[in-house]
Amino acid sequence: MPYITESFLRSKAVDILLENRASKMMQKTASLSSAKKIFLSHSHHDKELAKGLKNYLSSLGIDLYIDWLDSSMPPNTNKETADKIKSKIGRSDHVLVLATNNAVKSRWVPWEIGVADIKKSPSGISILPVVDSSGKFEGNEYLQLYNRVVVADDGSIAVFEPNKTSGGVRIKSWLQRI
Fold it and tell me: Which of 105-108's residues contact partners 24+ apart within 8 Å by CB, and which partners?
């Protein structure tokens, strides 16, 4: 089962049609207050990838919270930042980890996973492993504890339980269940 690639997410970051469709979908779902709220744990070195993922998920009616897009966050990282992140994780429907090589090296991403592990059940956290342009991904063992989001055999993006290679659920259906 292949991982999602950086180039896929980068293409979504600059896809104006997708961004417009995502904006319309979020306006529609916001008025109904039914949008699922997902906290994105990621490295700030991956802003373009995070933006692409936000565009993609927004087009499915999913509200992806990204801390650097939140104007209420302090300009410099401090205790208030940590408190706000804990609160956002607690109020989210789910936590999604954009597991890039940058995220694996981050100090904040494992901390956010730990906070989420306490505030959510293990099924409330999913890992989206992303391979770099050379096709490499350097994952850590703890990433195997949670659901993972990958490209299924039919080419769709699907969610699989830890250590399972069959029985995945297409991401749109899965997100409607959380």
Answer: 105/43, 106/43, 108/41, 108/43
Tokens of 175: 């997100």
Ranges assigned E (strand) in the chain:
4-5, 36-41, 62-65, 94-99, 125-131, 147-151, 157-160, 169-170
d(C-alpha 80, C-alpha 73), whole Å: 8
Q: Pinpoint the alpha helices (H) of 1-46.
A: 6-13, 16-32
Q: What is the mean pLDDT of each run of 10 residues along the chain (178 residues)?
A: 82 70 55 72 95 86 90 92 96 94 92 94 89 78 85 84 85 79
Considering all CA atoms of the chain, what is the largest pairwise distance in Å, rounded to the nearest integer?
Answer: 45
Residue 103 is part of which domain span? 4-177
Domain count, the chain: 1
**CA dihedral defined by 42, 48, 50, 53, rounded to 10 degrees?**
-150
Across 19-55, b (16+ Cβ under 10 Å) vs e yields beebeebbeebeeeeebbebbbbbbeebeebbbbbbb
- pTM for the model stands at 0.84
For residue 95, give the nearest of 152, 38, 48 by alpha carbon. 38
Question: Among 167, 89, 99, which residue's Cα sits nearest to residue 128?
Answer: 99
Which CATH number does the domain housing residue 90 bear?
3.40.50.10140
